Every structure is written in structure tokens, then in C-alpha cells.
Amino acid sequence: MVDLTEITTEQLVAEMQRRLNCQTKPEKHVVLAGPPGCGKGTQAPKLKSEHCLCHIATGDLLRAAVAAKTPLGSEAKKAMEAGALVPDEVVVSLIEEHIGKPDCRVGFILDGFPRTVVQAQKLDEMLEKKGTHVDHVLNFEVPDSVLVERISGRLVHPASGRSYHEKFQPPKRAGVDDITGEPLIRRKDDNVDTLKNRLATFHSQTTPVIDYYQKTGRVAKITADRPKEEVSAQIRAAMS
Q1: How far apart are CA 171 and CA 36, in angstroms?
Q2: In what order do the strands lie in the sheet with 107-111?
Q3: Has the keyword Protein biosynthesis been applied to this entry (predicted)?
Q4: Among 166, 162, 161, which Cα is nearest to 150's?
Q5: Given the residues 187, 221, 228, 236, the one annotated as active site
Q6: Which residue in 79, 151, 166, 200 could disulfide with 37, CB within 3.0 to 4.6 Å?
Q7: CA 23, CA 52: separation in Å to the nearest integer?
Q8: Is 63 in the active site?
Q9: What DSSP string describes 7-32?
């Protein structure tokens, strides 16, 4: 439990005001679609804050369930240890559990799911039983050539997840995190060959998902190779 004596009165008042503001926010259920390096990770926190939504990254959700040794986590662990994909039913059930939590009361942002049409259908079936549906699919579009440049120059602070870029967002001191001064790393899969394979897989799987949602008019194209402020403005327009 958080020790409230360590939190300033100003912080407490700001948090209370934020919660009060969230009471009047309309319910929204958002799917973020886009290739690795497209900027979803940069925009998701802003979207979460502005609309009082919970952010569900399915990779993090799976790891947390496995670490907590929940029944669904145990099922996921068996698949992972066998080198198989975690069954869609397990992932959808984990999402269903999570969206029942208080921080998801106003809605959610799904990041990393669905990746296939079957997953989109299963997600829709689960939400339909709850009397709701996906409201917006934000499709982040970036040319592959731009993504290669973005990913190949990316640097990460392992402990916090803070990311930098050698060209677009360099650290204050080369090779070290701005806040802790600890070394930055380059992830093993942040290289051109790996990225090209990931992009090929992404395009083959996700294009049909976009087509699936397009039929219901829920897809908004986000031209994501623009400055961050312009991308944020596109998202606000799509969500209005």
C-alpha cells in the first residue's frame, strides 16, 4: 500500500481532480495497429491520459500472468515453454479479466492485439457479450524505409524501458541514460535483417485485420511519419 504521507498535498489534489474529470469522460475502446517502430509507444500514454483509458499491452499482460502464476498464466506458460503461440482464447480471457479492473472503467487501449482476423473476431465476440465493441482502430502508417532507420538507431535503458535514438532523440551524453547515467543498450532484434522479417510478418497478418475493421467504418489512418505533435493532432481528430 502507498504511504500517503510521502505524497504532497498538491499531488493528492491533482490526482483527485484527474479522477473527477475522468467521471465525465465517454467510454471508448481503442485498438492501436501499426508496425514495430511506428510510434504507438509514444502516443499511447498521451491517449491514456487524455481519455482516462487503461493501456493493455498483451505482451506485458502475458508476462504478468505467468509471473503471478494465475490459472491463465499457467496455460500461457505451458504454450511458451513448448515453443508454441499462446492460444487466442487465453489471451482474450486475460484481456477480459483486465478490462474488469477499476482503471479500465472508462475503456481501454489495446496495443499488440489483435494481430489476426481470428483474434479480432474472438475479441469482438467477448466484447459483444459485455454489450460493447471496439470504437476506434488507429492504423499507424509509416513507410518501411523510415521504420528501418528508426529501429536501427534505437537505444534503450533496460531498467526503465526509456528509449532514445542516435539521430532523432539522442541522450544528453552518448550511450547513457539521461536520468540514471546507466548504460544504454541496443536490443538484439533492433537490426535491419530482423526488422525486415518482422515487417513482412506484420504486413501479411495485419492487413487483413485492418480490412476486417474497415468494413464497419472504425479505422482511422494515422500518418505516423510526421512530428509527434502532428501525429497527436491526427489522433485527437480521429477520436472526436
Answers
A1: 21
A2: 54-57, 107-111, 28-33, 136-141, 219-223
A3: no
A4: 166
A5: 187
A6: 151
A7: 9
A8: no
A9: S-HHHHHHHHHHHHHHTTSPPEEEEE
User: In the prediction, which pLDDT does 165 show?
Assistant: 86
- Active-site residue 18, yes or no? no
How far is it, in rounded angstroms, from Cα 207 to Cα 35? 11
Active site residue 105: no
List of residues 6+ apart from 135 with CB closer than 8 A: 28, 29, 30, 107, 218
pLDDT at residue 59, rounded to an integer: 84
Rounded to 10 deg, the angle between the 88-98 and 71-81 helix axes is 150
- Mean pLDDT of successive 10-residue stretches along the chain, which has 240 residues: 71 78 89 90 88 90 90 89 88 94 93 92 96 96 87 83 83 92 85 83 90 93 94 94
131: helix, strand or coil: coil
Choosing from 28, 46, 198, 226, the catalytic residue is: 198
- Say whether 236 is catalytic: no
pLDDT of residue 209: 95
What is the per-residue pLDDT for 14?
A: 76
Domains and their CATH numbers in the chain: 27-153+190-239 (3.40.50.300)
Q: For residue 199, is it left (φ>0), alpha (ψ between -120 and 50) or beta?
A: alpha
- The residue type found at 11 is Q
- CA dihedral (197, 200, 201, 203) positive or negative: positive
Please give the model's pTM, rounded to 2 decimal places.
0.81
Residue of 154, 172, 226, 228 marked catalytic: 154
SS3 content of the chain, % helix, strand, coil (to 5): 50, 15, 35
One-letter amino acid of 234 = Q
Cα(229)–Cα(227) distance, integer angstroms: 6
